[in-house]
Amino acid sequence: MKTSLLSMITAFMVIISIQCFAQEVGQVERLVSPEVSSTNDVTFRLKAPAASSVKLSGNWMPMVPNANGQGASRQLVDMVKGDKGVWTVKVSALEPELYGYTFIVDGVTTLDPSNLKVARDGTFRTESLLYVPGKASELYWAKTGPKGTVRQIWYDSKSLNLTRRMQVYTPPGYDDSKDSYPVLYLLHGGGGDEEAWPTLGVAPNILDNLINSGKAKPMIVVMTNGNPNQAAANVVTPVIPASDLPVGGMGSMLFEKSLVADVIPYIENHFRVKKNKESRALTGLSMGGLQTINTTFENPNLFSYIGVMSMGFADMSRFGVKLDVSKRDQQIEDLKKANPKLYWIACGKDDFLIESVVTMRSTLDKHAFRYVYRESPGGHTWTNWRIYLSEFAQMIFK
Amino acid sequence: MKTSLLSMITAFMVIISIQCFAQEVGQVERLVSPEVSSTNDVTFRLKAPAASSVKLSGNWMPMVPNANGQGASRQLVDMVKGDKGVWTVKVSALEPELYGYTFIVDGVTTLDPSNLKVARDGTFRTESLLYVPGKASELYWAKTGPKGTVRQIWYDSKSLNLTRRMQVYTPPGYDDSKDSYPVLYLLHGGGGDEEAWPTLGVAPNILDNLINSGKAKPMIVVMTNGNPNQAAANVVTPVIPASDLPVGGMGSMLFEKSLVADVIPYIENHFRVKKNKESRALTGLSMGGLQTINTTFENPNLFSYIGVMSMGFADMSRFGVKLDVSKRDQQIEDLKKANPKLYWIACGKDDFLIESVVTMRSTLDKHAFRYVYRESPGGHTWTNWRIYLSEFAQMIFK
Question: Which domains does chain B have, with CATH numbers?
């Protein structure tokens, strides 16, 4: 009790001191938002006395077809103006998950200024984050227990003539051990970069939690930048030479080549890793799924564990991407002969790319190519990719 | 020319493919904002057809006293509504610097949705970032050339009974060398955390650039979390046990003790570092300046290079912080005897803590304690702290 009282007093002093300090440096008054109840009801609040309309947009909300018949938009929820110009809405019993949300103030999308949890979804958007606790999201938290290290590393990519950045996760115990480890190469999607998996993907926490509970083998995870025209995520720190291109390079095969020619040799020369096929895994989502397909077709004996997330044999021409598929039948036969221990395909049943997965599966079936298929609810979302990573990591290097 | 044409076509294809892809995943139309001209005029744009007022708030703008006589606020600039509901303002010839800015839409502070460069200033705010190029900001850019590595490391703090996170920068060449390096311990301010110096502080780029140009010695830089009640920045990744306290602990001496008892031994056991006083430097800003003063007074023989930024002998009682200064005269004499190679004090002349620096200097002068004083224009700002880091890093380990 004594300690508890002392720590309460300390806590109170800290709050007072920071609030006074904040006034000196110009902080604004902050509401409690979002507020998560014990039953996972969530209340959102925004002070906007002069606004005529405030709506909530959260990525748990359903998409509805647009009035003009083209595309779909999220079904927004109106917030209600109350005392002192504070707009409020309460959402009932959200499922445990890591969500993104924004407010729409008189038509303009804004973050929740009361919430400092913010994440960027590649070149698409920046959103406020909401963690709803529970079984489905417990893997995403940094829990007590041993933890891995994430390194932001610059390496020379000779094949792209760029010094580039990647993020490398080493598992708990790596720095104090003499063991060699297997390596998972983990690729992001179109619009993303090397910061996607460590932030929105929560890969370091997922791996720490799976490894600490004995559900996954200790492994190194390499999170590259899959845009061959980009040195690094050019977001907080400007990078020279800075590319003005948004990102991309799907179908160019340039990233796939640099992964094999530059990234894997760098990792195998700078980390204590097992340098054989059985100790290499490759998986990626969307564009990274395409890069996984391409890389393993071109290099059938490099990886024993292969995971394709939310991507299949897509006709990418509607995205302006031309793929050379003339060698595909031969490539499938070559990979079949190489006999990887796992070829895993995962897709959401509402994913806009699900048809490409149907095509891929029927093509592979014609070749009697062995793969495991995992279909989940939902679409082309980080919710699915976090789940897929947590499942794939438990199946490899065993 | 051939390569150039090919790369232009590739670039075009990439843009098309990402834009089409973005429509599929629900991206919104994006304006060019901010647009920096060759003469550093900057145009800001926001689409807000339904808004009745849009203002620009940038941290280059002057503070003006509030109408009620209490405190000061930034002098906002009105934006003007034009075609298709796009609000615009052009700011002339901004000085080269890294700025933060926001839009105020009908009274609500929002980020610039066209700009994905976003940074969090501790618990205070999240802002859109604007880099204006030129001599004063060239140290902040990731240039071509060798680069250091930043590690996010979890370590056991026995004295705080927490597994905590810090960020450790190793200089270009560290991983391929057998040399031992000196270490700079670099502390953030109140409201900040271990992500402050690597993001808003741009410390990795500043160090890379100074080391590569021979202006600073190769060194390791340790960026801790200075809030003794906090395991790690609890922003993108929730941390269990999560503290509900905003941050703080000024005056508790708990962080200072853990720095000496936990952080320095961890670094000296896990990195190739020179383990002597002449190879240790300590500097910090604001709360981190206070922690620098406290740590070096309590441990006069630990650091040869000491830098106090934007802090002095402050009366912290107005912030609810009680400091025990009964031993100060003796501590000054002890540190004087220890004879550090550099005791550096830096402050902006408009800093709200400048009086504490005046008090500190006159107290040190009474003891004929040798220090170097650097006064800069401006106030309690990241502009000053980036400049101070770049100056301090050039004076140490020489």
Answer: 25-133 (2.60.40.10), 140-395 (3.40.50.1820)
